[in-house]
Amino acid sequence: MDIEDLQTFVAVADAGGVSAAARRLGLSKSIVSRRLFRIEAELGAQLLSRTTRGAALTEAGSTFRDHAARASAEIDSARETILPTGGLRGRLRVAMPLSFGPTHFAPVLADMALRHPQLHVHTSYSDRFTDLIAEGFDCGIRVGYLQDSNLIAKRIGPIYGSLVASPAYIKAHGSPETPDEVVAHDALMQGTEAWQFMDGDKMVAVQPQGRFKADSALALAAAAATGLGIARLPDCITHEYVASGALVPIMTRYPPPSAGAYVVRPPGAHPARKIRVLTEMLIEHFARNPDVWGLDRSSTNRAKPS
Length: 306
Description:
This protein is an alpha/beta fold.
């Protein structure tokens, strides 16, 4: 049984249809369909039930999908092991945040592709929540505070943040001195999230109020610089604004707790070697470029990284 046929079947099963799987694999729909036909013919069983909305796994298909995924992973691992000079091959699909990805993570992926000429790197940049399993990603990068999930996460570095406002906003409205005063100000937010601050060793949560919301930290920083309100943002997003004087850190006696950047992947016994290599390169990137992440502006009032 052809390994490419197995991998194609797994892609269709996870994507929920031939068209979506073809886009992920970079293949035509006709090639994907032929591979599915071959594997079903060889097995003598229908694995997928085609519908107008896509394709659903039959009972046999659901059982076979897990075996096919494990076999594909083992073959990929074996191929990587015998490649000369530790080279990687195959395809790596990564989901990254739009606010950080192009500027902070893309150079690492480019370097990885340069080091491994047989590796195909496909990256999707978006600040929306990405379902890695349903959308067929090998791994993703998450920045902030991780919520409970069935994903496996590896921390690659700390992320510090600050509450900031423009000089014009501070002149017109003042700035909060304590977390309790935050609710009296116009907050620039991603949604309806609570904001946490450190009062010594104790964490204090407040529910800010505001009329300007965006799912991009870059958009919130730009809005804050115009004087629209206060924003709680990562230092690596605001450091150029702060350096130019367009934004000013405020309420510095109560810093936000340190967050983190993580490589997250679907559950499994062992991560693929290409994910391990990417993780190691990102950890090295954090350590080598602390100024880019705001890690050289630590202070005694800052929360310690976890």
